[in-house]
Design a protein that fits this description.
alpha/beta, Transketolase-like_Pyr-bd, 326 residues, 5-stranded mixed beta sheet, single chain, Alpha-ketoacid dehydrogenase subunit beta, oxidoreductase
Length: 326
């Protein structure tokens, strides 16, 4: 089948459709995922085509949604649950981190929980309170969970396939501000393993590492830097836990500088672990300290102020300038 250009949201929809078609044990659950097709229409048309027993509209009860998915997984199903917005995940946090993440170890490997938790996350859409959070580091800190985030439609399609096929629970963060960005999706060509970083732009002077919504921004930064004669490599991390430290190391050994970019607050964010590990691994290669760009250590602001809160071209370029000045 030839590659088709589609939006990131559509790519997830097509991936879920393929999973429902190929495996009768795959179920989709969540608030308004059926008749409405989800608030972002990511599950549009799936209930109509696969029925209310496969695509299930649930009550407004995130803890109940995840708890039910755990029970279904214990009975051999592969549930894909949607948390409607990032800030709504916390009522289900206990189920995720004390049950979903721990069952495999608690049973000494006898029990597998192939559950995917979809979470639209991040800002940039002018949403109200509790609708623009970036809580990925909270889940990456929990052993037993895989945490991933696609940045483009092709990855969104294939990473969902791989997440559903995983026997381990996967937290699948969807960058909601990129839902409408389009890219070519080849339904036959897997981009690579689920937890492998990928160089999306070659460069020699500095590595920009990002995931999800910030990859596109880093590509724009690289374009701007190129006008000044600077060659920046852009690395799409794709996976937040586990992190492809070998892939990052290979890039940094070439460029000798690293700036990590994410929407989440810099304080104890994913970039902190990356900075620490790469400093340990690449101490004798680095020509500047690893720098981080992200949100501020403050509650996410009202929509009219979010552009001041979120990393932008100038803030990332400032970090690039500081790194290159060493």
């Amino acid at each position: 089948m030839a590659a088709e250009k589609m939006a990131l949201a559509k790519a997830i929809n097509e991936s879920l459709r393929r999973a429902l078609e190929s495996d009768p044990k795959v179920l989709i659950m969540g608030e308004d995922v059926g008749k409405l097709g989800g608030v972002f229409r990511v599950t549009d048309g799936l209930q109509k085509d696969f029925g209310e027993d496969r695509v299930i509209d649930t009550p407004l009860a995130e803890s109940g949604i995840v708890g039910t998915a755990i029970g279904l997984a214990l009975r051999g199903y592969r549930p894909v649950v949607e948390i409607q917005f990032d800030g709504f995940v916390f009522p289900a946090y206990d189920q995720i981190v004390t049950q979903l993440a721990k069952m495999h170890a608690r049973s000494l490997g006898k029990v597998k929980l192939p559950v995917v938790v979809r979470i639209p996350y991040g800002g940039g859409i002018g949403a109200v309170e509790h609708h623009s959070e970036s809580p990925e580091a909270l889940f990456a800190h929990v052993a037993g969970l895989k945490v991933v985030s696609p940045s483009n439609a092709a990855d969104a399609y294939w990473m969902m396939q791989q997440a559903i096929q995983s026997d381990d629970p996967v937290i699948y963060f969807e960058p909601k501000r990129r839902y409408w960005d389009k890219a070519e999706v080849d339904r036959e060509a897997i981009p690579g393993p689920l937890h492998t970083a990928r160089v999306v732009r070659e460069g020699t002077d500095l590595t920009l590492a990002a995931y999800g919504p910030m990859v596109k921004l880093c590509q724009e930064v690289a374009d701007a830097a190129a006008e000044e004669g600077r060659s920046l490599e852009v690395l799409d991390l794709r996976s937040i836990s586990p992190v492809d430290f070998d892939g990052i190391q290979a890039s940094v050994e070439k460029t000798r500088r690293l700036v990590v970019v994410h929407e989440a607050p810099v304080f104890l964010g994913s970039g902190a672990e990356i900075a620490a590990r790469i400093t340990e691994r690449c101490f004798y290669h680095l020509e500047a300290p690893v720098l981080r760009v992200g949100g501020y250590h403050a509650p996410y602001p009202p929509a009219r102020l979010e552009e001041e809160y979120l990393p932008d071209l100038d803030r990332v370029l400032d970090a690039v300038d500081r790194s290159l000045a060493y």
